[in-house]
# Entry
Amino acid sequence: MFNLNFVAQRLKSLLGSDSELRPLVAKAQALLLLQNRFAGVAPPGLAQFSQVLGLQAGVLSIAVANATIAAKLRQLVPELVTGLQKGGCEVSGIRVKVQVSFAQKPPEFRQRKLGKEARDALNAFSQSLDDSPLKLALKKMIDAKK
# Structure
């Protein structure tokens, strides 16, 4: 069986043992830590469409896919900086860059369940309908959500 953690540790050990690659490994680890900390303080819907580019002179650079996300993140900069500082990051500001070529992660799919009240309301509504594709669709939805 393929053990991804073992491979990652071996690769980290191999790269870390080379004196020329050690700074690159350290930089990659620092960026990963910043990305994780940023994802922890940013709203999930915005964090998943953002990528940490780096930290220079206390200013964290973030790449986003479009201007809408950039505008919202810019509004949240004071709260994000405070949250990052509380998490131990030496950040004094955030610069947001729109990079259209930045690959967006697909939104995470979360199965949602109807509550009992919603199921009952849909059931009552479907019973008031004549036989139709809508009535059949509602019945399937009600039965699937139990």
